[in-house]
Design brief:
This protein has a domain at 6-100 and 177-262 and 307-325: Rossmann fold, CATH 3.40.50.300. The chain has helices spanning 54-61, 84-93, 111-122, 128-141, 160-173, 190-207, 218-224, 242-247, 252-259, and strands spanning 6-16, 27-38, 43-47, 69-74, 77-78, 94-97, 178-182, 210-215, 227-232, 235-241, 313-314, 320-321. The protein is globular, with a radius of gyration of 21 Å. With 347 residues, the protein is α/β, with parallel strands linked by helices. Iron/sulfur cluster binds at residues 251-252, 292, 294-295, 298, 300-302, 305, 310, 323-325. Residues 251-252, 292, 294-295, 298, 300-302, 305, 310, 323-325 line the site of iron/sulfur cluster.
C-alpha cells in the first residue's frame, strides 16, 4: 500500500469566544479528533453540511491556523509551521483553493501578474523566458488557450468558470503534491461545474496529486472521489470507498444526507425522515451534545447515544461508521489508529 502524502492525526480545533459574559468565554468545538489520510493520485471527498467544520479542517491542513491538539504529517514527517521559509516550503507542497474564485484574486492585477507572483515565490530564478513558458503551460493545463488571450485580463473580465480555472493554475504554479479544494464548484453555474470537476480529476491523475475535495454535495462525491468521509458537528462519522458510502450508507446522518439529495434512481431511504426526530437543525458547537452529536436529530437514537461517544466500527471493504447501531454487526470491530483502512479516519 502507498504511504499517505498528507495525514491529519487526531486534529482538534477549539476557538475561544471573546467577551466578558459567561457565554462569551465559551469555546467553539469546531473540529474534534479528526484523522484523515490523502494519497497521491487519489481524490478524497470531505462531505458535510454548512458549519460542520469542513473548511476548518482545510485551513488546519493548510497550516493557516494552529490546531488545539493533534498533528499533521507530510510524507510521514510531523510538520508544524507558522511563518517564514518553513511555511513557504510547506505551502509549495500543500496548496489550498478557496470557494470564491473572485474573492481570492486582487482585482487590480491581471492573470499573468497573479501567476508570475506564485512562480516568483516558489520557482525563483528561472528567468523570464522560462517563466513565460511556465505560465503558458499552466494555462494550457487548465484548458485556457491560447494563453495570450488570458494573461492580460483582469479577474472581472473572466467568467466564473474561467476564474476557477485560473485559481487551479495558480495553485499548480507552486508545484504542489497536495491540493485542498474547498467547495471548488459551489459558486459556479451548474452547467460548468462538471467541466471543472473533470479538470480537477484529470490533474489529480496526471500530476499524482493528493486531492481533498470539500463539498456539501454528497452526490458529486460519488461521481468524483475515490473515498468519501462524512463530517457532522466537528467529527467524522462515516468513511470508506465513495461508491459504498453513497450507495450503502451505514450512519443515519449519511442516510438522511443522501435522502435529501435528488436522485431518481436511488432506492427508498432506510430510515425515517429527519423531521420524525423532531429537530431539524445542527447543534451549537459551543455546547455540542454529549455522546453522539447527532442524537438530538437521529430518528434511531438510543439511551446510550446520549452519553457515550460512539467509536468507529469497521464494516466491510474499508467502510466504517461511528454509530452504536453497528456495534453488534458481524463484521464490526473498533479500529485502532494503526489499522485504519485506506482513506479512512476516526470520529
Ligand atoms: Fe443515531 Fe445513536 Fe447512531 Fe448516533 S450513535 S447515529 S444517535 S443511533
Amino acid at each position: 500500500m502507498n504511504s499517505p502524502v498528507l495525514e491529519a492525526v487526531g486534529l482538534t480545533k477549539h476557538f475561544r469566544v471573546r467577551g466578558k459574559s459567561a457565554r462569551h468565554r465559551a469555546v467553539v468545538h469546531a473540529v474534534d479528533d479528526v484523522s484523515l489520510s490523502l494519497y497521491a493520485g487519489e481524490v478524497t471527498a470531505l462531505v458535510g453540511e454548512s458549519g460542520s467544520g469542513k473548511s476548518t479542517v482545510a485551513r488546519l491542513l493548510a497550516q493557516l491556523m494552529a490546531p488545539t491538539s493533534g498533528s499533521i504529517r507530510l510524507r510521514g514527517e510531523e510538520t508544524l509551521v507558522k511563518r517564514g521559509k518553513p511555511f513557504r516550503d510547506y505551502v509549495s507542497s500543500v496548496q489550498l483553493m478557496l470557494q470564491d474564485p473572485f474573492g481570492s484574486f486582487n482585482p487590480v492585477h491581471t492573470v499573468g501578474h497573479h501567476l508570475r507572483g506564485v512562480l516568483n515565490i516558489h520557482r525563483r530564478g528561472q528567468g523570464k523566458v522560462a517563466e513565460e513558458a511556465a505560465i503558458d503551460e499552466l494555462l494550457r493545463e487548465v484548458s485556457l488557450t491560447p494563453s495570450t488571450q488570458y494573461t492580460g485580463r483582469y479577474p472581472h473580465e473572466l467568467s466564473g468558470g474561467q476564474r476557477q480555472r485560473i485559481s487551479i493554475a495558480r495553485a499548480l504554479a507552486a508545484g504542489p503534491d497536495v491540493l485542498l479544494a474547498d467547495e471548488p464548484v459551489s459558486m459556479l453555474d451548474v452547467s460548468i461545474r462538471l467541466g471543472v470537476l473533470n479538470l480537477l480529476a484529470k490533474l489529480a491523475a496526471e500530476r499524482e496529486l493528493a486531492l481533498l475535495y470539500i463539498t456539501h454535495d454528497i452526490a458529486s462525491a460519488r461521481y468524483f472521489a475515490t473515498n468519501t468521509v462524512v463530517m457532522y458537528a466537528g467529527r467524522l462519522i462515516e468513511g470508506g470507498p465513495s461508491e459504498t458510502v453513497t450507495q450503502q450508507p451505514a450512519h443515519p446522518y449519511t442516510q438522511l444526507l443522501i435522502a435529501s439529495a435528488p436522485d431518481p434512481g436511488r432506492p427508498v431511504a432506510p430510515v425515517p425522515p429527519a423531521s420524525s426526530a423532531g429537530l431539524g437543525t445542527p447543534p451549537s458547537l459551543i455546547d455540542p451534545p454529549a455522546g453522539c452529536r447527532f442524537h438530538p436529530r437521529c430518528p434511531l437514537a438510543m439511551d446510550r447515544c446520549k452519553t457515550d461517544v460512539p467509536p468507529k466500527f469497521t464494516l466491510t471493504g474499508g467502510h466504517w461508521a461511528a454509530c452504536w447501531l453497528h456495534e453488534k454487526s458481524e463484521n464490526a470491530a473498533s479500529v485502532a489508529p494503526a489499522e485504519q483502512p485506506r482513506g479512512s479516519q476516526s470520529c
